[in-house]
Amino acid sequence: MSEFDALLGKLLEQKPELSRTDVEEKIKQKKEKIGAGYLTDQGALFLIAADLGVILEQPAKVEIGIKDLHVGAKEVTLDTRILSISPSKQFSRKDGTTFFLRTMTVYDSDSTANVKLWDEKANLPVINELKPGDLVKIVKAYVKSDLNGDPTLNIGSGSDIEVINKQTNIPPLESITKDVSSLKENEKDIVVSGKIDGNISLMEYTNSQGQLRKALRFRLKGDDSNFVKVILWGKDESSLPKMIPLNAKVRLLGMKTKSGNQGIELHGNDVTVIEIEGKKEAESIVARILSIAKNESGNNLVLVVDKNKSVFKIFDQANIIGSYNEMDIIELMPSKVIGDSVTLNKDSLIRKIESEKNIPSLSEIRTKISDIKPDNEYCVEAIILKDPQKRQVQTKSGETISLSEMFVEDDSGQIWVKGWRNLARLIDKCSLGEIVSITGINAKSGLEGRIELFLTQFSSIKKKN
What is the CATH number of domain 285-353? Predict the structure, then answer.
């Protein structure tokens, strides 16, 4: 409750014949009579109380909780912890003048709220030193409505924010962090933890103002081994370490959940804080080349395996692997490594190593068909039991695309191998009775829960004599 509301309550207690509306009208009249620039609502309330023979004593500063905020409240003081904070940004008004704005999300023991810091408050030295989890006091803020109608704290020239150090009931970040497996629909301003599942990709989109922006997409795996799709709008790869290991631990601060086509999704924005296990600089990788393919742009797509039998996908943007062959052992210095995805550019270094006993061969990392599980990538060797078949499939959008498939087996089981679009050509070159070695193939659950193998842009099919 604000000081104004506390004083108004005392006046109404002593003058029960008045309503809040009556008093607000008297405040309006008093301010009009005195003249603009002299009275606040609270000052006018003191004068009205005197007119009515009521003595109001200014109460001690009342600190409220976030759940008590309401649009229109003024001089609000409360203790909170930082959940996330954005950099200061400069904007232009219609008249050509500029202003600075920084956005934060804060929380207490009950709720969360957004905070906007305006002009010089956005660039206070203390603000630049704040980090998630810090305990701060917001002093004399005013509350306005955001685009969704939710109360938003505003810190302008008459307000302040202070770092404090005292005993508090507001829980630390560790206490409010949720594993990605425990998410529910329509949660907001949450802290989520999990492990990177696969690659982190960059996409571009156009926002509501027509501006071209970027976003990060990846999957997080929870304690139950299930995964959730994550989209961080307004974020790019500058938010990430250069070296992110497989199954890296991740904590995302300031997320919300949405219902997507495959269940719950996690969405963040440019205020979201990303904490990822990793290193600022990429490190060298020693590995054996398993296969070399090319994408539609003519760049090399290379699969390699290291001494731990970890398979990496190399995006060779500079085509510097072109002079090397499959089964060569190489040492490379990539520009970045994110999970199992390695990027090489013109500044990357690569050299051939003549011998390295600890690097497994292709035969050592192959998987038996009976051991294949969904949502993983494999290398297999099998015999083709049926002539490959090709057909045209029409998608929901009306597009007609190619699908080729073949039925294969090894001494442990049988499985379908499928290739869509331009990958269908790899299967079209195969024939009944041939033994093939397939690298970089993805397992998915198909009809009736049956596991099927799908070619990827990294896949390679080699025939064995």
Answer: 2.40.50.140
Q: 138 to each of 64, 82, 112, 113, how far by Cα in Å?
A: 11, 11, 14, 12
What one-character DSSP code corresponds to residue 209?
A: T
Fold of 66-163: OB fold (Dihydrolipoamide Acetyltransferase, E2P) (2.40.50)
What pLDDT shows up at residue 210? 82
Its pTM stands at: 0.69
CATH 2.40.50.140 boundaries in the chain: 66-163, 174-274, 285-353, 366-464
**Hey, is 275 helix, strand or coil?**
strand
Specify the CATH superfamily of domain 174-274.
Answer: Nucleic acid-binding proteins (2.40.50.140)
How many whole angstroms separate alpha carbon 451 and alpha carbon 434? 22
Per-residue pLDDT at 6: 80
Spatial contact of 416 and 447, defined as CB atoms under 8 Å apart? no
Q: 90 near 99, Cβ under 8 Å?
A: yes
List, as one string, the DSSP characters of 241-253: -SEE-TT-EEEEE
Q: Mind listing the pLDDT tens digit for each residue in 309-359?
A: 889 899 998 888 888 899 999 999 998 888 888 889 888 899 998 877 789
Quote the CA–CA distance of 190 and 178 in Å, as a whole number: 8
Percent of the chain with pLDDT over 90: 49
CATH of domain 366-464: 2.40.50.140
